[in-house]
Specification:
elongated; three-stranded antiparallel β-sheet; alpha+beta; Aminopeptidase; 45% strand
Length: 66
């Protein structure tokens, strides 16, 4: 999907978020080359509880180097 975004859609930056407690999702994002850029505080309301999310992103030139 990242290759499609940069190659076909000509995007400059692609980002994703994941629940900070979801270590598996964070590892997947890092494995595909995304870099953790920060934390979004109380981003999602899940089961009556506000949860923080991590923000990951990758730039086109970073993807080309992988």
């Amino acid at each position: 999907m990242i290759g499609f975004g940069f190659g076909e859609l000509k995007l400059h930056r692609i980002y994703a978020t994941c629940d900070q407690r979801n270590i598996g999702s964070a590892r997947v994002l890092e494995k595909v080359g995304m870099i953790k850029g920060g934390r979004i505080r109380e981003h999602l309301l899940i089961k009556d509880e506000w949860r923080d999310s991590y923000l990951y992103s990758i730039l086109e030139q970073e993807w080309e180097r992988t």
